[in-house]
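hey can u check if this looks right to u? its 90 residues, i copy pasted from the old doc so theres a chance i mangled smth
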Amino acid sequence: MDINGFTPSRRVEKTARGYTVYVRPPKIVGELPEVSVALTLGQYQRYLLWRDGPALIQEALPDLSPSEREMLMTGLADEDFDEMTRADDL
């Protein structure tokens, strides 16, 4: 569900080793590229628990890096997140 451009869009492709989750950042942050995270079958099942249920992402997917979890949540890669949160030089 997209709430007026505030929600990232996600799509999933099945692969030989599991699944790849593609996430596009919310429209409100501008036109940023889609990111992807490859998940094993077990990770994908836990991803669904986070996406559809009560699990916190760090509890459902502790084996992913913080950067990978951020990409799944927001669609922002490290460099995009850094750029958005960087203070402009005065």
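The beta strands are 9-14, 19-24, 35-39.
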